[in-house]
Amino acid sequence: MLESISLQQGRKLVLHAQGLPAKSRSGDPLTHSLHALKALGYVQIDTISAVVRAHHHTLWNRNPHYHCDHLTQLIANKQAFEYWSHAAAYLPMKDYRYSLLRKNALADGTLDHWYPRNPKLMAQVLRRIHDEGPLMAKDFESPSTAFKSKPKDWTSKPAKQALEYLFMQGDLMIKERVNFHKVYELTERVLPSDVDTQTPSEQDYWRFLITRFLRANGLGQANEIAYLRKNTKTGIKQTINTMLEAGELTELDVAGEHYYALPSQLDALNTPIKRSHLHILSPFDNLLIQRKRMQTLFAFDYLLECYVPAHKRQFGYFSLPILWDTKLVARMDCKVDRKGKVLHIHHLVLEASLRKVDAFQQALTKSLEAFMAFNQCQTYILHKTTHLA
What superkingdom heads the lineage (predicted)? Predict the structure, then answer.
């Protein structure tokens, strides 16, 4: 049976599931960071460092006591691992087995990698790590003592490609990062002894993708669940139909749009949500990584302009979306001057729909204090403000 809810109720389901605003928690901050990672299912890794990198930024918004060494600790504790979600990501170790279908498909050639396969070089790389222990790509820039002469294709670029291929097909894992550089190690020397390594069936995999997405996002569509996952949409659609027939899913009409949800999550409609707290989000935050979804549910048209030529940018190089009053109401282009400990807000842009400007400014001022501290800044400079017509 199709249940109709308002757009505001749909947003409420999404924000409760996303942990926004973050709930107050006592106890160990590292444990809360692991809880947030498990609840989200993944956090995307990104290299842009205009402000604190996206994977840290995303968890900080769910755990105000998050520290940037938490992910390092979770990897060291074997409670999290790096792999591919819709993009490079940190994932909870409890979900490790669901990475095996992709790894196996790459290993047997069912799925193509973006790098060419070089079996000879891959075997040499694997042997070096087996014999020498964890290595980085830069360790392959000079000849190994294991070889009398340097293979002619033993350069950093092919070796890096071999490392990534071995990582993606499951022979290697990322043991740690040193100055953000990956340290590769044999999978059997990284995995905890109690992790489930049984490859799921395709049916179990589709069910996992569906339930994980809906738990983390409140509601969703088949194409959103399959986002940037090759060859999954048909299986996801078929499994959704099976779960609907079994009463495991609910169909929702949200202001004319068709979604699915887990029945238990509809209880969140009766749970109050804090509307006064303001969140400065990463462009890669789980809430808004699917831009079309955000446009439909939050009427927020967003483009990350760091990939746009400078003269064509409307809002700035690295514009951070701002969530307040359960809406995406603004964006601000930021860059940290780490030497001077200054947060530069090059352009603050308020959406045309924002009416409570004074209340918003008070909430932003309060949140900026925490955001500056998180970025190790002592002050900020606001260079320009625009209120869209």
Answer: Bacteria
